[in-house]
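Example A, followed by Example B.
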Amino acid sequence: MKGKKLSGNIKSCPTAAILFGFTVVMLILYLALPQTEFSDAENRYLTQRPRFNLAGIKDGSYMESFDNYTKEQLPFREFFVKLKAVSEMILLKKENNNIVLGKDGYMFEKLFSPGKRLEKNEECIKKFTEDNDREIYLLIAPNSFEILKEKVPEGLPRIDEKKYIDGFYSDLSSKENLHTIDVYDELRTGSKAGKQVFYKTDHHWTTFGAYLSYGKICESMGIEKEEYTDHKVNLVNDFYGTYQAKYKSPFAVPDTIEYYDIKIEDYVINGTEEHKGLYDMEKTEIYDKYAMFLWGNYGISEIISEKTSTKDELIVIKDSYANCLIPFLTGNFRRIVIIDPRYYGGSLKELMEKEKGTPVLILYNFSNFNEDSNIYKILK
């Protein structure tokens, strides 16, 4: 009788029947379909099915991980993500997944206030400067919405990055061995002159924006800037960056990546992987084409340039903003050691002791410096 009653209830309520059937089908698909490790369209790794453990049940971490897993491994997820983006556009909304569409196809990240890590990261830089008796150069790069103000939608509230960068630089002015590098004016002037200094669909500056900043680095270091007008400029077309990966506009116009034909002697990643060039051309065929610079992000790498006329060396502590700028520095330094704290598992203190006296360039973009939880590693 109960079975007949349940059957009758389902028949009398077709909506419930449809939802029940949909739930069963989705459950089967979750179990049957292979997990997606990396989303090319979103340019990030997706949460995998968590292992069951009692400790995780007690502290809630298992359920949190399982919730993220069900969202990120949703069958046909790419379709639903694109459908959401199209529906937002139909409703005339200019925001999707915290990315805002501005003028001339430029996309911008919404950043309203300083993050919890900003003050801690500033303290790490101060302590690093005090602990190291060497020349240290600091460049905190503003993000696109700070430079391309004319392209940002009117009325969009945003953090005043320049104010925070200027304030931090001012706090560091008493450190004799620390040299702050301000690239705001160079990027603004370049943009006003009609040059593209930031990508439209990505959070990075362009190679030209990086080159303008390279000039300011040379000025601060008291070295001569290399001119690259004689180098061959190569193009990588159809680049959709991190902003487009989130915004998902079906009408986004792709960017073009420029890179210079800069020769080196050797490039070693993590002490074992050796290359004779600075660019991974295979990555020009995938979604994240920007990853071609320096072959991507790694904990430690080392460049030996063809610049035999100098024995100068440099340590660069950086995020991915530096990846398209570092090739220019090979014209000034024979050897460059590159550290990305996000992926570095070694001891920076031991490295600094080994590389005694070698100057350090710290280069981050403000948005990442505002929230990166790995900068503390420079003190370890």
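Example B, a separate protein, is given below in the same form.
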Amino acid sequence: MQFDFAAQPLRIVLVDDDEDDYLILRDIITNISEFAVEIDWASTHETALAVLTRNEHDICLLDYFMGKYTGLDILKAARAKGCQVPFIMLTGSGNRSVDLQAMKSGVEFYLDKNHLNPFDLERAIRYSIERAHILRALQDLNSQLEERVADRTQQLLQTNLQLENEIEVRKKIEEEVRHLRHERERATLSQIAQYPKTSLTAKMLGMRTLRESEPDTFKTFVDRYDTLLELAMEQIAYRVEHHISTQLRELAEAMGTMRLSPRDLVEIHQTVLNTKNVNITPEKADTYVEEGRLMIFELMGHLSSYYRNFAFNVSNRQGRLKGSDPTTDFLGEDT
């Protein structure tokens, strides 16, 4: 049964062995006005695994320091037992290496709990849930379409036994398999752009996609992405250097300042491909799909890095402001 975020509160589990930290974090969460919440607390490694493996929560806020265990230990053990709950890692150390290690382990977001506030936490929860839904949709769609590819390939192989010209049959098989693979990619991206759970999350948080809320800005990003795709094609065809990676990084930074979500990127990518794949040869359409796939994955990587760096810099800046002495700042250290 599909979860209705508009009718039910968001279910959050806090994993922290310090009761005082749990109470502080609970108060911050209850001050988020954008959605209602139900909060559970797990204070030990064993309790956390038992709760997480039931997959009854929408998000987990996981403390990095858990006695003799770390939050990463709990995350890996929970994933090994089939846990699909998205994670936000919390730590009081502000350690950059812990941030990177957490992201590589599959954590959706990372926050310094010494500088938490309802605004940053709401944004992290919203982003983490939407990202987890998109990744889950990708996995489900890829599995279904891979089965279709396997079934169709088997049918074509059986047909091959009935045909007289083996070379021609092999060409047909290869063409069909290639077509199904590209169909899988196009269908996957199209389904993500219209994924119902993502829409429900947006509805719950009062958010709309960029296409819906700012169509002119959406068109501007579509045009920029379209231009980059054409430059990438030209770079392949004529062996010229257009520095596509640099331009993708700059585009990701522009998208980051507008707080675009992964769903917005997919809609931009799909819009460009739909306009390209009209009245062109299958070979050229395949080239657009292949090059576009590389571009959107690189663009998503740059955007993810932008958001991680943004969150880290905000935490550092807040830490410096909290620890500064206004008198010393004004007069200087030597008076």
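On Example B: The CA atoms of residues 55 and 84 lie 6 Å apart.
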